[in-house]
Amino acid sequence: MAQKPSTPKGTRDFLPAEVAKRNYIFDTIRGSFETYGFSPIETPSFELSSTLLGKYGEEGDRLIFKILNSGDKVRKADLEALKDGNLARFSNSLAEKALRYDLTVPFARFVVQHQNELAFPFKRYQIQPVWRADRPQKGRYQEFYQCDVDVVGSDSLLYEVDFVLLFDEVLSNLKIPNFTVKINNRKILSGIAEVCGEEDKIIAITVAIDKLDKIGVEGVVKELRVKEISESALERIMPLFEITGSTKERLSQMKSYLESSEIGLKGIEELEFVLDQANELGVSSDNIEFDVTLARGLNYYTGAIFEVVANDVNIGSICGGGRYDDLTGVFGMPGVSGVGVSFGADRIYDVLEELNLFPSTVDNRLDVLFVNFGEMEQAHCLKAVRTLRAAGISSEVYPTSAKMQKQMKYANARGVKNVAMLGENEIEEGIIKLKNMDSGEQTSVNVQDLINTLK
Q: For residue 121, is the peptide bond before it cis, meaning its omega torsion is within 30 degrees of 0?
């Protein structure tokens, strides 16, 4: 008995109409990326495991898809680790390569490897798939596309401002009506850890408070206790969950909270600059807010942190990113500042679909299908098709002179916009009979009139 075909969980096939919608998103995003001066690059779908591991924190590392060694490389398996019960080390010894988890770490590797070929600040964009061994659920896939923009080689806050403007432009161009750009700064989070007297546990603190919207205050406190955060530190952290009001009011409360932390106040200063400039350049204060609990759970952020949510759809963040001053240092190129953001195309697709925001013009439907009446008529149809294609109009001839019912059934199933009939009489008169499949209207036109009508 033949095996029933299926795709792995967390992956999907895309039908032609879906691909057309996805291309609309990619083209919209790409257009803004290029307008802002970013250049395209591509990197391999998989990297050396050593390139990826240790860059995303303990939780991120667990979600990396590893590629099993083959051939003689299997002999490199660390059997002693297996014997000792060190399954993580044993697993790593079986896999020298892994599918990329995101586009940022491979980009850092790219910059270091090609540093002598690049002009800094280097601005790149990249639209490619990534893979994560995450539990599939709504808006969360194991294979999905990221649309990234990054700048390396400058610590100017003007780039953070540019990214806020870019969020606003792309999502407005996609007609998403109600979105919020959430922003924080890793220096503020460092200041919180300093005020609490737990500077050496900043990762544990930030990973926990980043989950506030998922597990609530009680869940965050429980996780902090598991991470051995002291009770006195917990008392200092709790007031953070009560900070409310406008962004300006929240920042004022944070200034008071961080008054003894130089690094925390530096984070506030950077954040105020970005927010003030973005507002000055036309980004509505309704679309951007300070969120002190935003951490994104990744180890490499050192400055601004961004996350964007579509408020009318319960789907999680649709964009995110931040500054990562130290990322290239792990590849032997210290002192290179970087900042970047990512647009989650798959989640954006789900938002547009749920809110019915795709334009009616986004489709892959064939413009014209010529009915095939026979060998002689087919020859005339092929000439007409060639002329239409040269004018940028998608068209084709039905492959055989099948019964009219069968050809029309195919046209309906294919979603053809217009059916053209070119029989003996039409050939003699120099016309084409055209039926609009949406309205049912029938007209008689010559080829040039047909081109003018469809263009």
A: yes
Q: Which CA distances in Å does 200 have to 54, 236, 238, 329, 336? A: 18, 16, 19, 20, 24
- Strand segments, DSSP code E, in 252-354 are 288-290, 304-310, 317-323, 338-344
Class for the domain spanning 16-44+101-354 = alpha beta
Dist CA 391 CA 388 (whole Å): 5
| pLDDT value of position 163 | 97
Distance CA(283)–CA(302), nearest Å, equals 24
Q: To 10 degrees, the CA torsion angle through 93, 97, 101, 105?
A: 100
CATH level 2 (architecture), domain 368-454: 3-Layer(aba) Sandwich (3.40)
DSSP H helices, 238-335, are 247-257, 262-280
Phi, psi of 20 (to 5 degrees): -60, -40
Characterize the bridge pairing of strands 395-397 and 368-370. Answer: parallel
**Coil, strand or helix at 342:** strand
∠ at Cα 129 (127, 131), nearest 5°? 145
Mean pLDDT over all residues of the chain? Answer: 90
The whole-number pLDDT of residue 244 equals: 84
Report which of 255, 251, 241 is spatially closest to residue 211, judged by C-alpha positions. Answer: 241
Q: Is the pLDDT of residue 445 over 60?
A: yes
Comparing CA positions, the residue from 363, 356, 365, 342 lying closest to residue 174 is: 356
Quick one: pLDDT band at residue 139, thresholds 50, 70, 90? low
CB 63 within 8 A of CB 53: no
Task: Give alpha helix (H) positions in 114-157.
Answer: none
Question: What residue ranges do the domains of the chain occupy?
Answer: 16-44+101-354, 368-454
Query: What global pTM score does this model have?
Result: 0.85
Distance, in Å, from the CA atom of 449 to the CA atom of 436, rounded to the nearest integer, reads 15
